[in-house]
Amino acid sequence: MNKKILFVLLPLMVLSACEAQGSSSSSSASSIPSSSSESSSSSSSSESSSSEEEPTSISISESSVDTSSWPSEPENEITNLEFYALNDFHGTVEMDSYNGYAGITRLATYFDQQESQHPEETVLLSAGDMWQGSADSNLTHGALVTEAMNEMNFDAMQLGNHEFDWTDEYITANAELANFPFLGANILDKRTNQIADFVDAYTMVERQGVRIGIIGIIGSSLESSILASAVANYDFINPTSVVPQAANQLRNQGADIVILLNHNGSVDSTLLPYVDAVFCGHTHRAETSIESGVPIVQAGSNGYAISSVSLSYNKTTDEVTVQNYDYIDCSDAGILSLAEDAGVKAIYDRYLTVTGPIKDEVVGTLTGSMTKANLVKMAVMEMYTYGQAYGAQVAFHNTGGVRATLGSGSVTYGDVYECFPFDNELIVCTLTGSQLLDWLDHGDYTYGTNIAKTQLLSGETIVSSGTYKAIVINYLSEKAFSGDYPTYLHDRSKELNTHEYVRELIKQKFLTAGTIVAGDYN
Q1: What is the per-residue pLDDT across 134-174, written as a single tens digit (0 to 9) for each?
Q2: Alpha carbon distances (Å) from 114 to 15, 84, 85
Q3: Which of 41, 84, 426, 435 has its CA at a distance of 20 to 30 angstroms from the CA of residue 305?
């Protein structure tokens, strides 16, 4: 397992116009430090299980890649390798120059350029959350993005929490479509107590005879960020039990380098001795750090940045040297000015024949710009109005369910979709007064009460013994029946599913009003 790791910070490569985000000092070690000497940082921390009853380990069945056609050893004394990764792309297939989103066709051109400049030295990875987030991707349930990733020759993808938003049905469908493996060493299928059958714990690729192992994990608490029914059969267990297994199996199979794809904002420091670099995701931060000679990189979200790590491998000394680690800002690097890749554009255009008429429908006009806070306020007001037909007296929407902002001018359905991408159905719940008061204390966006949240808009005081109805997205209502610490308690037998989505209410509001003034939702 123990590999020699050297860290050397060299001047940034021409391909990146960013400042170096890592330490400017150099360090080396003849062996990997023990985990007891690790210091924590914003990027590394000790991660604990989310529940005492949660399974603590998975026994990983050893798997192997067919290496029969690979060189028996590295071809060169020193092999330089370039690793690139996207994280939290969220289906942002179209370029958005205002926000600096490169779009999938120009990212493809950039990656092709890097492969041309560094033939047989480039590895392309994803740290998860690639699909969910835009009409282009959502209307195709991720297939457009997966096909584009095929065209770009991705080597592996760790599943993120939002890959589960459409249930395992569409994970499996995309896995069958992909010509690269989906990873998830700590995704436990509770029905079998084995790794979910749509992921591998790890994979291995080869560049110039250097064997590169790639392990994938997801944060062990992230089930709570997924619709409960969509992830009911799965647990994301503590990765500290699986990464050592996977790394040791890869080393035994001849891996010279091991990379960790980690769909989490931090990585447990005890895992670092087993890997040579970590690509993170989930928190949408653009950040870099280095711990015990191991670079840790995350590149924001939506394709406005790319994670980049440069490593070299010495065949004689069996040493891995960190030459550079950074995130590449797509705007600064000129990626938004690149020509579109013809192969990926052909994929986009083929799907556009279906998605275009839907997403490009102009639903209205906005005077002024709307922040996420403005939009969620609009959402709960429209939910309240819609819910009154079902007797709802209060509306609830979570703080994280709005994913984009709206600018002044014409608004398309695709714009609305980007703001409200989640397929959370609206549920009318019956609850006691004490339950309602508890719901109101959770910090969600609400509409239907006074500022103090003690009275309904009618002036009626909320009393603990009373009976009330609330309209809520099912992401919240399902929390009453999942996990070890249920919240949003109510009488499930009296739930009414309207089978409606918030974005449809917002669309209808624009269609009815014609023009909406952003200031009305301050």
Answers
A1: 999 999 999 999 999 999 999 999 999 999 999 999 999 99
A2: 8, 9, 13
A3: 41
